[in-house]
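Late entry, written up from scratch paper. The run itself happened at the end of the previous shift, but nothing got recorded in the book at the time, so transcribing now.
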Amino acid sequence: MTSSHPEPVPCQWFSWLAAALDRRSAPRLASLFVGAALARGQRTVTTWIRAAGLSGRFRSCYIAVAAVGKRADRIARRLLTEVVAPLAAGPGRLTLALDDTPTRRYGPHLQGAGIHHNPPPGPAGSPYVYGHVFVVLALLVKHQAWGVIALPLPSRLYVRKKDLPAIGTKHRPAFRTKLELAVELLRWAKPRLDLLSRPIWVVADGAYAKKEFLKPANALGMTVISRLRKDAALRTVPGPRPVGRRGRPRIYGERTIDLAKRAGQKRGWSRGAFDIYDGKEVKRYKTFLATWRPAGGVIRVVLVDEPTGWRAYFCTDTSANVADILGTIADRFSLEITFREVKEVIGAGKQQVRFVHASVGSFHVCLWTFTLTEAWAWERSEAELVDRSDSPWDSPTRRPSHADKRRAWRREILAGEILAIMRAGPTGAEIQAAADRLLSLAA
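Output as recorded:
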């Protein structure tokens, strides 16, 4: 049985987010958030249910998880306004990160699953993975001690066109490419972030540097930064229109730009120290303006000389400087770290649900549990989050990991439940129930 005593302050976020659902499902979702934070081991939905003490109502809990998949945008809106936006308060721009990530799944009757490319296969991994692929939108927020952290908001499930017929017509989504799903996420974020009255930048993987994504993002007034293909069909910036010539001015220049030749030229390179990856690094770079049809006009190109070869990046804001572009590209790596933590620490993809809405809902619960954990730990000191006295081999200067923050939050939630029981003058049955609950969580 769950505790009937008032929830500690952090758990009020759970109730606030769950209020976006029907009043019958909202209390169960709030409890499932607690279960997702406390769960250990396999971290399936049944593990969440047991950790929340809802085993007697497991069917309605699965219904609540499916409801999350249908109302994910509503819940994410509350998460942004109530939890994430206060962390991003202050002057300067807002930076969104976009990328897709696969979750390994098993089972022949898993709706929406298919064979996808596996970006980080590892030394012995397969280049392909069977499971789901989600396009995730995250807000990059900088902590004064921990650096940039990507806080996931909503996501979209990508289903290959050939896998759609396996989903029943009642729940079958329309086919959309990853680029179309990414544009949907930007359109979701635009009116919410406009309330903060700050410019919006979007950093994405090079696979999203295509006209289907760049032109809608430009129409939304967002600046896009991404990697540029080495064989990109760039052209020069057109000069002023000759006097007396009629018609519209040129958008694209007459001469082509070969990036390989530009990178091979010895002249034109500069050196600078940039704050990237939590430290200063000296980079050899070259920057210039060019026109590119997928972007619909002029872009700023930055070539960087790396030990493994030169790389090219671009920004749709021609006034952006090299430090901002390279810093934003480096900040995008925080989203990859978030994907790793969501899968390894929180257990995304291990929920053992079959239907498409339940899969979407359980993945969002994992994403939002990560965001809520980071928000809870944001203003807390390192001493409150991790105790390294039992680990003398550990580095005392290492910043707390997400697993450290999760364990500290679990301790506070459980301590809040115990204190609530003790303040109310517990009976023997209540003490026994609390002891059984703690033992089951420990086991």
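The two ends are 17 Å apart (CA to CA).
(Scratch paper discarded after transcription.)
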